[in-house]
Each structure stands twice: as C-alpha cells, then as structure tokens.
Fold this sequence. Notes:
Structural class: mainly alpha
Number of domains: 1
Helix content: 55-70%
Number of strands: 0
CATH topology: 434 Repressor (Amino-terminal Domain)
Amino acid sequence: MMNKTLMKSYIMRYDGKQSVLAEAMGISLSSLNAKINGKTAEFTQGEMDFIRKRYNLGLQEVSDIFFAQ
Length: 69
C-alpha cells in the first residue's frame, strides 16, 4: 500500500504542485491522482524510478512511499 501523505509531502517540497510532477512525467493530473490514491491505477516501476531520481530518494525513502505497510 502506498503512503500517499508522504508522497504528497515530497511533491509539495520539490515541485510545489501535483500538476508540475504530472507534466514532468508526461501524464495527466487525473492519472497522477489516480495513482497516488491507488483506486484505479498504480505507479509502474519506471514511474517510481523517475520519482526516485527526480527527488533524489534513497531506497528506504522509496520503500516508505511506495511499499508502506
């Protein structure tokens, strides 16, 4: 299960708005929101890697965001 609160905090810290991240990823804002909320879509490994690199995240941070218990 994804920690959407933590994900949103990184977005706010580095991009300011979800729309900035969505544009950088080449997806719509609604697609990004669906992935964050985990209702109709999930992040692909490539998208997780993109976010990891964009925000300079370590493995523990990636795990905390995308694989929360």
